[in-house]
Input
Amino acid sequence: MYNLLNGMTVVEGAAFIAGPSCGLYLSQMGANVIRFDAIGGGPDARRWPIGKQGQSLYWEGLNKGKRSIALDLRRPEGRELAQRLATSGDGLFVTNFPVRSFLSYDALCALREDLICLRVMGWADGSPAVDYTINASVGVPMMTGHPDDPRPVNHVLPAWDLLAGGYGAFALLAAERERNASGKGREVQCSLSDLASATMGNLGNLAEVLQSGADRPRSGNNLFGAFGRDFVSADGARVMLVAITPKQWNGLVSALGIGDELAALESQIGTSLAKDEGARFTHRDRVDPIFEKAIASFALDKLGPMFDGAGCTWSVYRSLHEALETEPRMFAENPIFSDVTHAGGASYPTPGAAARIPGDERAPAAPSPSIGQHTDEVLSDLLNMDSGEIARLHDDGLVA
Output
């Protein structure tokens, strides 16, 4: 947790990953993020993984450090309260509610003209979508997997959701910066479909298909256009090796002592593998076996020091459980984590901001709230309600 956004208030009305991760990143940089939830929890309040106390670890992870107010969003009065919250404070609102809903920009703008609303969407035209369906539509699962298996491979990491959270936070702050100069509010629509198609264009994938007239073939675990793949040591450990630059390549070749074999191959194919990274990929059927044989002759306890001494880029394949036990840089000795007890009752290492800011003090990660934990204080602080008004809302069942 840092204080770069100290004094900024952001209201969040969102579920699942993209919208809540946007609010999470803002909170971890010091913003006061207030989310409104349906009484009893929204559609993501019980998503897996589930903790021992029955709480959603998924919900806890994405909403830590925020304040939560619970509203009855089924009733007009509850929706009116949500609109008032969305347009209160600094006038910064993050949502994934549909474009045409009681939280439409037109409805909110009528209450506050300088409102900045970041709206996370599935398809840019308003059609529903989630990360998996956008990923299927843009072709990534057809590029992933081994050449001998035609089935598409879905990725367990929700990349477009997470990209939307980070890009959304950036876009919200950009709009807020411009409003400071012009006084103008605006809606910023951030769709998973546009992020996916733009990324395919930014990485050159789109131009590649247009110019070649064909889809990129699958290449298994090989790094496209360079040298990178999984290999197995003499004692069965699987390691990932990458060599993109000439320095990385020469260090790896030197560490394994296979320079003569590769020089002979270079003579046959008429190119320098050290200078031409693409040739390492093009001729992978002849390059890879040389590495396979060499790596299979050493146990991991020998390979590791050899690779490190030569400055190689490598890692051992681990499960997450194994990483927790054997990779202290990731978890045990990582200062972005701190032990936190969450509203669900469990205590575990919890990450704060992923960015490190040398010279700035890092506060411990904040706990997740229980749904509705801050209802009364939010109504008082943000909507200036007195205790009598708040009590009547409770009596009417509009808040909890």
Remarks:
- Residues 9-200+335-395 form a domain with the Rossmann fold fold (CATH 3.40.50.10540).
- The radius of gyration is 26 Å.
